[in-house]
Design a protein that fits this description.
Elements: E1 6-12, E2 48-51, E3 64-69, E4 77-82, E5 86-91, E6 96-101, E7 110-111, E8 119-124, E9 130-134, E10 139-145, E11 153-156, E12 166-171, E13 177-181, E14 186-190, E15 196-201, E16 208-213, E17 219-224, E18 229-234, E19 239-244, E20 250-255, E21 261-265, E22 272-276, E23 282-286, E24 296-298, E25 304-308, E26 313-317, E27 324-328, E28 338-343, E29 349-353, E30 358-363
Parallel strand pairs: 1-11, 2-23
Antiparallel strand pairs: 1-10, 3-30, 4-5, 5-6, 6-7, 8-9, 9-10, 12-13, 13-14, 14-15, 16-17, 17-18, 18-19, 20-21, 21-22, 22-23, 24-25, 25-26, 26-27, 28-29, 29-30
């Protein structure tokens, strides 16, 4: 991977003071059993759930892990993004964006303008720029690959809106970015050149966390941790529907290859992986080993993969058999606190380990 010098633009529009999804958890009781209900905008009272079949932790099948320590100590890597030639990751505690090639060679660790910004989640637009959210820095940021030109740090404060910390971010099919403002119960829609299109408000106490592009490629779905719902928007920013998630703290969310949405459950007790159809039918799969679950993605095998940061493990939900397999990370005994996961262009799964200061890969 040939690393290029980066231009970082910090867009000053967000602020501190929200309950960050990367460290929060709540407890909840397992939802009651019953048949799945298609909601069509009505909140179901008791979505179906079932305990998935599983195999014992760390004994599922042959696997290959590879982890490397981030050069900056105590950086607490959090968000991760796969590109054509490597991965980018946020260094949450040291205010940097790091680069790692698929050959495990670190590139530039770009420092941010803002101190104590706590960069969180990454997204990319079709012009090649990489965007990131800041939990406490009052900004969103953009990294632009520009060869030869020295790294330039610029402040961009033209939004003049209240500062509210951001969590998740996603780029939609129109190349519009959706940044989630957790504490403000709202979502920012920003153009790929940095102009604010609109702020979309959710109900008080909704505490939105993560967005994803819907299976139809024509909608945005957002987890609401405070109200235990999943919200659906059209690409113009209009709220279409809200559905009950059936879990205690809906966290990360992704669209699966089967046309359904899958999301994780950030709770300290028994946790579940949720599956929601586009019409709101919910089925829950119990995580065999329990504990909080974080990042979720579609893997190179077409199944759903997620991180168990409370248990130091990576897990697969087979979308056909509904079997959940779990693998403990090599340093599971050190409580690595793995958070987010992506599928790389090299066909591996890549993830961050906050507590052990590592970035790792897993070959299914």
């Amino acid at each position: 991977m040939k690393f290029l010098v980066r231009t970082v633009i910090a867009l000053g529009l967000l602020s501190a003071g929200f309950l960050t999804a990367c460290s929060s958890s709540t407890s909840s009781s397992p939802p009651g059993s019953g048949k799945s209900v298609t909601t069509s905008g009505v909140i179901p009272k008791s979505p179906a759930w079932r305990s998935s079949m599983s195999v014992p932790l760390s004994t599922a099948a042959p696997y290959t892990f590879h982890t490397v320590a981030v050069p900056t100590v105590n950086s607490n890597p959090l968000g991760i993004l796969a590109t054509g030639d490597g991965v980018y990751f946020t260094e949450y505690s040291t205010d940097k964006i790091g680069e790692l090639s698929y050959n495990y060679v670190f590139g530039t660790e770009t420092p941010l303008n803002t101190a104590a910004a706590y960069p969180a989640i990454l997204a990319t637009t079709n012009d090649g720029n990489i965007w990131f959210s800041e939990n406490y820095g009052g900004s969103i940021g953009r990294i632009t690959p520009i060869p030869i030109v020295p790294t330039t740090l610029l402040e961009w404060n033209d939004f003049l809106v209240p500062k509210v910390g951001t969590v998740g971010v996603v780029d939609d099919p129109t190349n519009t970015l959706w940044f989630v403002e957790n504490a403000n119960n709202s979502i920012l829609r920003v153009t790929s050149w940095g102009s604010l299109l609109s702020r979309v408000s959710l109900s008080a106490g909704s505490s939105p966390v993560f967005p994803t592009v819907g299976p139809d490629n024509n909608s945005i779905w957002v987890t609401e941790s405070g109200t235990q719902k999943i919200a659906k928007f059209n690409l113009s920013g209009t709220l279409v529907a809200e559905y009950a998630s059936g879990v205690g703290y809906p966290n990360d969310i992704t669209s699966g290859p089967d046309g359904n949405l899958y999301y994780t459950d950030n709770v300290t007790g028994p946790s579940y992986i949720g599956r929601m159809t586009p019409s709101g039918t919910v089925t829950l799969y119990k995580v065999p080993s329990g504990g909080s679950t974080g990042g979720i993605t579609t893997g190179p095998d077409g199944n759903i993969w997620f991180m168990e940061y409370g248990n130091g493990a990576i897990a697969q939900l087979n979308i056909t058999t509904h079997v959940i397999n779990e693998w403990g990370l090599p340093d599971q005994a050190s409580h690595p606190y793995p958070h987010y996961i992506v599928t790389g262009a090299d066909g591996q799964l890549w993830f961050t380990e906050q507590a052990t200061n590592k970035v790792g890969s897993f070959q299914p």
